[in-house]
Write a structure and sequence with these properties.
Blueprint: E1 7-11, H1 16-27, E2 31-36, H2 39-53, E3 58-62, H3 68-82, E4 87-90, H4 100-122, E5 131-136, H5 149-172, E6 176-183, H6 189-192, H7 205-215, H8 220-224, H9 227-232, E7 240-244, E8 247-250
Parallel strand pairs: 1-2, 1-4, 2-3, 4-5, 5-6, 6-7
Antiparallel strand pairs: 7-8
Helix pairs in contact: 3-4, 4-5
Length: 257
């Protein structure tokens, strides 16, 4: 899939990985609808993007991925503005072991909700153009972070949901690929706030720091640049791409058959 002329929706788009993904997509010719709960930051980001890429290339929609109504409105506005949707990046996420219900709601249910709505717009059997969905998971989708068990559970869920929906789409003939982008520790606000968000697991903060020291960190730009392959390569479907300071690799899984 060439990105020129394509339309993407990015959730959690105004900061961190989401902002970097938005920039990469714009740099490669896509139009992008930025979806985020932070309206004030959204306006600031939009001003900067419009100066660089032009008003006709971007759109901001205030929305919470926990709200079916707000997501539907954002998808509708994007379709009305740009004529359709080709790409969805389910990127919105949090890490807060103290508010674990919200963590599950945003990290996993938000991805499921966004994916199902995108399928309604993109499904070739319903008049859509097909396309690709990329879900932001984590290295925690493969191995446990002991101090963040709920976060770990949500990212395992994202990886599993991604792989199942990819197979679902292929078997059903929907024309939509679904992949997961799985970064290691990334230098973002979420990353810097980890020690304060461990709640009942705060006694493991030193163990978390030791793991960080061992694995190292990557930048949001290093994460975002890897989304291009998942979006543009038509052979990539049901993939989980692990991105670490040492490099990237596609994960393999045991077969059930």
């Amino acid at each position: 899939m060439a990105l020129s002329g394509k339309t993407a929706v990015v959730t959690g788009a105004v900061m961190g990985i989401g902002r970097a993904i938005t920039e990469v997509l714009l740099q490669n010719g896509a139009k992008v609808a930025l979806l985020d709960v932070n309206e004030s930051a959204g306006k600031t980001v939009m001003e900067a993007l419009e100066k660089q890429y032009g008003r006709e290339k971007t759109l901001f929609c205030k929305g919470d991925v926990q709200s079916e109504e707000q997501l539907k409105a954002a998808f509708k506005k994007t379709t009305e503005t740009f004529g359709g949707i080709d790409i969805l990046c389910n990127n919105a996420g949090v890490l807060n072991e103290g508010q674990w219900e919200q963590t599950v709601s945003i990290n996993l249910m938000g991805v499921i909700r966004g994916t199902y709505l995108a399928f309604e717009h993109m499904n070739k059997l319903k008049g859509g153009r097909g396309g690709v969905i990329v879900n932001t998971a984590s290295m925690a989708g493969f191995g446990p972070l002991p101090s963040c068990p709920v976060y770990t559970a949500t990212k395992h869920g994202v990886v599993g949901f991604t792989r199942a929906m990819a197979a679902n789409s292929t078997l059903s003939g929907y024309g939509i690929r679904v992949n997961a982008l799985c970064p290691g520790f990334v230098k973002t606000d979420l990353f810097t706030e980890i020690p304060a968000r461990l709640a009942r697991h705060s006694h493991l903060v030193d163990a978390t720091q030791q793991l960080l020291d061992k694995l190292g960190t990557i930048t949001v730009s290093e994460v975002a640049e890897n989304i291009l392959e998942l979006v543009t390569d038509e052979t990539k479907n049901g993939e989980a791409l692990l991105v670490m300071p040492t490099g990237k690799k596609y994960m393999t899984f045991p077969s059930l058959s």
